[in-house]
Design brief:
By secondary structure, the protein is an alpha/beta fold. Helices cover 36% and strands 16% of the residues. The chain is built from 12 helices and 8 strands. GO terms for molecular function: carboxylic ester hydrolase activity; lysophosphatidic acid acyltransferase activity.
């Protein structure tokens, strides 16, 4: 797939039309901050997960941002070859997006997207990294061995995700893994209806350790945020990721795995904003 980025600018909440290439949503004022935020989505999602809350909130705080849909996701090209795509393909998409953005970039990444973001550590264009419920570089095999024993019904629902067509039917356990009880059911189900299949190859690759640089060793500031009751990326897994990267960290209560779309999304946004202010990027 050619490394073409199709950008869709919008002042507040991006709503693009379908196009060729990679979908890149843009929001926020130009030149207000010394760095641009690049949002990376997790499995079965797209750039749209950032458009409702996160991008407008960061724009109001003066940050310009972009949200990428990996190939085969959202409105990016490549859906027909989805299950042949791997993590290196997603990392190549991030490099294409980095090349399209001016100046230093802060990666803000969720779940599987956070694993891809870790693969970019050491790239001189990456000024900092924020990881939400990150899939660890050690892989998810240990978590996925544990899950059928601790919650077999959730495990069955997660196992169906690569085969989604037209979103999720309302599986009760997955709804409560992705979102807290505070999010109304109708809102949770509306989000789940937008979800899509995920690449079998990418999911398989995410089970096993990957060679990534430690953010601490390459000098990249890092923040890790986890959901304390998340069964998909549990607290001990999140804390090991934070330790490996020498990252600042926080575990959040009363919020689910998909924290940027959950009730209480303001909490991770506020923590990330405060942390970014403390970095004094470009000053």
């Amino acid at each position: 797939m050619a490394g073409q980025v199709v950008a869709f600018p919008h002042r507040d909440c991006p709503r693009p039309e379908a196009a060729e290439g990679l979908e890149l949503l843009l929001a926020g004022p130009e030149g207000a901050r010394p760095a641009t935020l690049l949002f990376l989505h997790g499995a079965s999602a797209g750039a749209w997960v950032w458009a409702e809350h996160a991008m407008p909130a960061f724009a109001r705080a003066g940050w310009r941002s972009a949200a990428l849909s990996f190939r085969g996701h959202g409105r990016s090209a490549g859906r027909a070859m989805l299950h042949a795509l791997g993590l290196l393909d997603y990392a190549a998409d991030v490099r294409t997006a980095l090349a399209a953005l001016d100046g230093p970039v802060v990666l803000v990444a969720h779940s599987l997207g956070a694993l891809v973001a870790q693969m970019l550590l050491g790239d001189p264009r990456v000024a900092a990294i924020v990881m939400l419920a990150p899939v660890p570089a050690e892989g998810l095999a240990a978590v996925n061995v544990r899950l059928p024993l601790t919650d077999p019904f959730l495990w069955k629902e997660v196992a169906r995700m690569p085969w989604l067509a037209g979103g999720l039917a309302p599986p009760e356990r997955l709804r409560h893994a992705l979102f807290s009880a505070r999010l109304p059911d109708e809102r949770a189900l509306a989000v789940m209806a937008r979800m899509q299949p995920e690449s079998l190859r990418a999911l398989a690759e995410a089970q096993w350790p990957r060679p990534v640089a430690s953010a601490r060793l390459v000098g990249t500031p890092a923040l890790v945020l986890g959901a304390a009751k998340d069964p998909l990326v549990p607290e001990d897994t999140v804390l090991r990721t934070a330790w490996f990267h020498g990252a600042d960290r926080a575990m959040l209560d009363h919020i689910g795995h998909a924290m940027m779309l959950d009730a209480g999304w303001e909490q991770p946004v506020a923590l990330a904003l405060a942390w970014l202010e403390g970095l004094c990027l470009g000053r």
